[in-house]
Design brief:
- It contains 19 helices and 2 strands.
- The chain has helices at 2-24, 33-40, 47-71, 73-92, 97-125, 128-159, 164-167, 169-183, 197-216, 226-248, 262-293, 297-302, 305-321, 327-345, 354-380, 388-425, 446-451, 454-474, 476-486, and strands at residues 494-496, 503-505.
- Strands 1-2 form a two-stranded antiparallel ribbon.
- A hairpin with a 6-residue loop joins strand 1 and strand 2.
- Helix 3 runs parallel beside helix 5, helix 3 (47-71) packs antiparallel against helix 9 and helix 13 runs parallel beside helix 15 (354-380).
Length: 514
């Protein structure tokens, strides 16, 4: 027994390492992008470096989740690590933005295989009485890596070289590969089934069209341009075709029958909306700190640590509480913290003390942290081992989709408010004084800040802080909607039977919604 438990811990170590590098690479290039563009050029194409990874990862998640149900998890998890490492090596050797974007897409394919399969493996190998704790650790690593990504990206770029934000994946990935290869033995059989290639193709096409439309809209092309409207039209057609194909497929990539389960449907709705306040806080708190208080990207990243600690604590606690109360009850409590966090962050100004900013981050991180463990467990709850991959890949896809949509929409909102405030500030001058930046990210440079007269800098930081606080207040909209969908979750909880090997759905005695 002790030997078996030791093997399980090695398996968990491999899974956590895989999830850490895959989720970290969603954000690690953010703070290094300025240096990368300065080195490789291609300022007009830099958006693809991040988008290529996210698009490939999102499109691959439901496909690899389904394939792991059909042919086994180990082979596809290891395949994901291998492809991810190949993409990392190639990314580090890129000598143009176009090459880097292509190599990042290869990385994303690997990440799309690792992310959904890891949680399914937890439910395969761990007994029911330990799944909550293991799921909590999984969620903690996912949340922690999302915040550590920009920090590590800034540190490595400042003190080593941007190439190493990709090379750092190699030792971690190889260790994860070895741990899974030697320690993980699949226990249940997998039946070969027909692959829904048409469903996969229409899903990938729809996701790619939508993401390109969102990324290019308002930047490279106007929102009402033929290119953007065309991309949205292609998305609508392909998505409609995908829905039709999936309704007819014998073994669909995403089974609509899963959404007949109330808990699964409501959980995915909560996940979609819940990730938006999380990504808004993760992106705009460093911008606020660095733009208002000044300092390097590395220092602004370090100031996210309180949010990360709150998130990790909540994710682990959520896994523990899942054995004691319903998923719905946990998420109701968590949603209140998120709502409070968004309200408090909506009060940020140039006069807000760092102590208060830290407190607001802890509250927000604590609220969002529960979702990474609890929602993943809730999504899988009503399904057997042969559907774990599909169930978890679906909610992973929904999370990624929510984060990407969220940062695009709320990035546009913040940019609009900032531009509006600048126009008001300099209305009496006819135009902004020469040398005054209209892009808030330019204000991060100490050289630029030192050349701006103090009265003008004060007006700029005020405009920036107002635009960010108003963005947080707008983020209350998805937070409130998520809270509403939590009430639609059924009241199941993780219930361990005496042999600690199975989980039964056990609703609370009082079934009415309260």
């Amino acid at each position: 027994m002790a030997k078996n438990e030791s093997k399980l811990m090695w398996v968990m170590g491999g899974l956590l390492l895989g999830i850490f590098i895959a989720s970290m690479d969603q954000t690690i290039v953010a703070t290094a992008m300025g240096t990368i563009v300065a080195d490789l050029g291609g300022l007009d194409k830099f958006v693809w470096v991040t988008s290529a990874y996210l698009v490939a990862e999102m499109a691959g998640m439901p496909i690899f989740g389904k394939l792991s149900d059909m042919y086994g998890r180990k082979r596809f998890f290891m395949f994901g690590i291998a492809v991810f490492l190949l993409g990392s090596i190639l990314s580090g050797t890129a000598d143009s933005i176009t090459q880097l974007s292509i190599y990042r897409a290869i990385q994303g394919i690997g990440g799309g295989a690792m992310m959904p399969i890891a949680f399914a493996i937890i439910f395969d190998v761990f007994p029911a009485d330990k799944r909550g704790k293991m799921g909590g650790l999984f969620g903690a690593v996912f949340g922690m890596s999302s915040i550590l990504g920009p920090l590590l990206g800034a540190y490595i770029t400042d003190y080593i070289s941007w190439h190493w934000i990709f090379y750092i994946n190699l030792p971690l990935g190889l260790l994860a590969l070895a741990l899974i290869h030697f320690s993980y033995k699949e226990s249940h059989e997998h039946s070969k089934q027909k692959i829904d290639w048409l469903g996969a193709a229409t899903l990938v096409g729809a996701v790619v069209s939508l993401m390109f439309g969102l990324e290019l809209g308002g930047k490279e092309y106007a929102w009402d341009s033929t290119v953007i409207l065309g991309l949205f039209a292609v998305f609508a057609v392909l998505f409609a075709l995908f829905l039709y194909v999936e309704s007819k497929a014998v073994e669909p990539i995403i089974s609509f029958q899963m959404f007949q389960k109330r808990l699964f449907a409501a959980t995915n709705a909560v996940a979609l909306l819940y990730t938006i306040p999380f990504i808004v806080a993760t992106v705009f708190i460093p911008i606020y700190i660095q733009g208002v208080f000044g300092g390097s990207a590395t220092n602004s990243g370090l100031l996210l640590l309180p949010m990360m600690l709150g998130m990790v604590a909540a994710s682990v606690l959520g896994g523990i509480l899942a054995n004691k109360t319903s998923y719905r009850n946990i998420m109701m409590m968590a949603s209140l913290f998120v709502l409070l966090g968004m309200v408090l962050l909506g009060t940020l100004s140039t006069d807000t003390s760092r102590i208060l900013v830290t407190l607001y981050m802890i509250i927000t991180g604590f609220g969002t942290g529960f979702s990474f463990s609890v929602l993943s467990m809730a999504a899988i709850h009503n399904f057997g081992p042969k559907q774990y991959g599909s169930a978890n890949s679906t909610i992973s896809f929904v999370r990624e989709f929510g984060m990407t949509i969220g940062i695009t929409i709320f990035g546009t909102i913040q940019s609009h408010f900032f531009t509006e405030k600048l126009a008001n500030v300099f209305a009496g001058m006819g135009q902004a004084p020469t040398g005054v930046p209209t892009n808030p990210r330019v204000m991060f440079s100490e050289q630029v800040r030192s050349q701006i007269p103090d009265p003008i800098l004060e007006k700029l930081t005020t405009a920036l802080s107002i635009s960010i606080s108003q963005t947080f207040l707008w983020a209350l909209v998805p937070a409130v909607l998520a809270f509403g969908f939590v009430f639609l979750m059924s009241r199941e909880r993780m219930q361990v039977t005496p042999d600690s090997k199975t989980v039964k759905s056990k609703p609370k005695p009082n079934q009415q919604l309260s």
